[in-house]
Specification:
The protein is α+β, with helices and mostly antiparallel strands. It is 54% helix and 16% strand. It contains 11 helices and 11 strands.
């Protein structure tokens, strides 16, 4: 008992754990405040967009740009007009002509996509069609527009009075499904819009299946939005490069120290996290298929986390706790598999399980560290807390029934955990090296 009490006092009195307790209190106050979700720093950190960004809703298929200022840009969401089974020729319509066209062609308002997965449009089995967005009260400065996701072949046209500007797009538009292609991932195509009047934005789309979608987009003053999106693009590649470098380092370390399985688990965890980008770049793959792959990769990442801690705890506690953690790993995979088989298109379920895993890992690791001297605790507990902060918003998205992209949050959480695992292994190696001298 004396050793246990002494160990607890050492852990709770250490400066890293004081920081952990402070962050816990901050996290608790952060989660209970609904107003906190309106703060921009959290989304900026998750999505790596550090400009002055505001959310804006499209109403009845019309985007009013009168309040857009030059020092900000908008994340535009809402509903857009969709004409199923017809590739409308770009044309400027008066209000009366537009109302007649909508009624005659039986157009419908459909929500913009906010995830990789295309939404099923009700009462439509067509593999092609035209999305139309009405733009009103344009500001007197050049605009830049970027769709956040790419789903399938598309072609964009800007119509200002009697002028039609072909903005370009992805692939070739065809009414024959076999000639169309799927695209997947973040879009990196910018469209320059220069007009000072009302306009129409026509987007002709075609897909191998009836999974047509219109992505939410960013729009703003070109000099304000372009650097922000460029930094976001570069940051994604930097993070993926970090995963690749960590994988190479630890897999080589494992070859030289094959008895240390923790190095293998860190290498696998980094490789799986890097694989998120590889799956994202795979050509002509439906969004639903990629989401299934993401779900499996996420489950495999969870298994690596458990196996890593099983290895650490086994060496500290012996068979009893080892069996408990082995059971937890199997339970995690079982729950993820059940959700995957019931609703494979809904990746938020396994992501939510991932958040619960982090809570369990934090609680049990903190408890075991009070009983034993776990090396690297000052790295692991803050990393688990930061991981919780990145992933908690997934619960809000699930509770609201939304289908937003969660890949950024999980990727950043994985990076934090990877760095923490690496620091723990480095500290253990340093201790072993000093003892051998």
């Amino acid at each position: 008992m004396g050793n246990v009490t002494e160990s607890r006092s050492i852990i709770l009195g250490s400066s890293p754990c004081q920081i952990v307790c402070f962050v816990l209190l901050f996290l608790g106050s952060f989660l209970v405040s609904e107003a906190s979700w309106a703060k921009s720093w959290y989304d900026q950190l998750c999505y790596l967009r550090f400009g002055h960004e505001e959310n804006h809703q499209v109403k009845a298929g019309t985007l009013d740009l009168s309040t857009l200022s030059a020092d900000t840009y908008w994340d535009v969401r809402g509903e857009v007009w969709f004409f199923p089974g017809v590739l409308l020729a770009p044309h400027f319509y008066s209000d009366t002509e537009w109302s007649g066209l909508v009624s005659e062609m039986k157009a419908q308002l459909v929500p913009m996509s906010v995830s990789y997965q295309a939404l099923d449009i009700k009462n439509s089995e067509h593999t092609f069609g035209t999305f139309v967005l009405r733009l009103r009260h344009a500001p007197k400065f050049p605009l830049l527009l970027r769709f956040d996701f790419k789903h399938h072949s598309s072609r964009n046209f800007l119509i200002v009075r009697d002028k039609v500007q072909d903005l370009g797009g992805l692939g070739q538009i065809s009414t024959e499904p076999s000639l169309n292609k799927h695209y997947f991932g973040k879009s990196n195509q910018n469209y320059s819009l220069a007009f000072e009047d009302d306009a129409y934005l026509f987007t002709q789309v075609s897909s191998p299946k009836s999974d047509l979608a219109y992505s939410h987009f960013f729009i703003g003053y070109q000099d304000s939005i372009e650097p922000t999106l460029f930094i976001q693009d570069i940051s994604h590649y930097l993070i993926d490069g970090m995963f690749l470098i960590i994988f190479v380092y630890y897999i080589l370390l494992f070859f030289f120290r094959s008895h240390d399985l923790s190095s293998l688990y860190v290498a696998l965890f980094s490789l799986l996290s890097f694989s998120f980008m590889i799956a994202n770049l795979w050509p002509n793959t439906p969004g639903l298929t990629i989401i299934k792959v993401f779900t499996l990769l996420n489950m495999a990442c969870n298994a690596c986390i458990f196996l890593y801690l099983i290895d650490k705890i086994y060496r500290l506690t012996g068979q009893h706790v080892y069996r408990i953690w082995l059971f937890a790993t199997l339970l995690n995979l079982l729950l993820g598999s059940i959700l995957y088989s019931i609703e494979p298109s809904w990746a938020n379920g396994p992501f939510a399980i991932n958040f619960l895993n982090v809570i369990v890992l934090f609680s049990v690791t903190f408890y075991i560290s009070a009983q034993y001297r776990m090396p690297g605790l000052e790295f692991l507990l803050p990393a688990l807390l930061i991981s919780m902060i990145f992933q908690f918003d997934i619960f809000r998205i699930v509770a609201m029934g939304q289908n937003e992209d969660n890949g950024f949050r999980v990727l950043h959480a994985n990076l934090v955990l990877t760095v923490a695992f690496g620091l723990i292994n480095a500290k253990e190696f340093a201790l072993t090296f000093r003892r051998s001298l």
